[in-house]
Structures are given as structure tokens and as C-alpha cells.
Specification:
Layout lengths: L1 H4 L3 E5 L1 H12 L4 E5 L14 H9 L3 H12 L10 H11 L3 H11 L1
Parallel strand pairs: 1-2
Helix pairs in contact: 2-6, 3-4, 4-5
């Protein structure tokens, strides 16, 4: 999105705050504003799923990585307890939009 718009200021809320933080580590972000970002406080939530996310990304399985992050960050959601294959299929459909895939790849690769 930064390359497409030329913007350097990033705002993130909840899961978007997590994405914005990851992006700021890799991209030329000028200013970063976060509201209620998905961060670990006192060890919760667990970040144990990130190893599986990294593995999925290395294997080029982007939809699986998105499904793993979604369930890992939103542990309270009923969807996080759905089978991984189903969450992956839903994420694959979402990622068919060019802007969704570009945003995820640019911040997390």
C-alpha cells in the first residue's frame, strides 16, 4: 500500500496494529499510530503459532499463514476453532483480491 499510495504514515487498529508494527520493521514508515494493537501483555496471547506462520510463508502458503495468524491473534473467536483447512480456504478466497495479497506480502515477507 505504501508503494501504491506514496504514503509514509501508517495507522493500525487491533490486528491491523500488529500488521503495521511488522511493516514498520521492514518498510520506510515515517510515523506509526496504533490503537488497541494485538500485542502480548503478560504473556497473553501466546505467540507460539508464529513458527508455523514463518514455515507457511517460506513454503509459499500465504493463505495458510493468514489463517494461522487470524486464529492466533483472535483466540476468542469461534472461527479460530474451525479446522485449519477451512480457515485456509476462506483466506485463499480473500487473498484473491490484489490489494489484500499485496498488503500482506509487503509487510510480512
Amino acid at each position: 500500500m505504501l508503494a501504491h499510495t506514496g504514503a509514509r504514515d501508517v495507522i493500525g487498529h487491533s490486528y491491523g496494529g500488529f500488521i503495521a508494527l511488522r511493516a514498520a520493521l521492514r518498510l520506510p514508515v515515517g510515523r506509526l499510530a496504533l490503537y488497541d494493537p494485538a500485542l502480548a501483555i503478560d504473556g497473553t496471547p501466546s505467540w507460539a503459532y508464529l513458527g508455523a506462520v514463518d514455515e507457511a510463508l517460506r513454503e509459499g502458503r500465504l493463505a495458510r499463514a493468514v489463517a494461522l495468524v487470524g486464529a492466533g491473534v483472535n483466540t476468542h473467536s469461534a472461527m479460530s476453532r474451525w479446522p485449519l483447512w477451512l480457515r485456509t480456504a476462506i483466506c485463499a478466497a480473500f487473498l484473491r483480491t490484489p490489494s489484500a495479497a499485496a498488503a500482506w506480502v509487503s509487510c510480512c515477507r
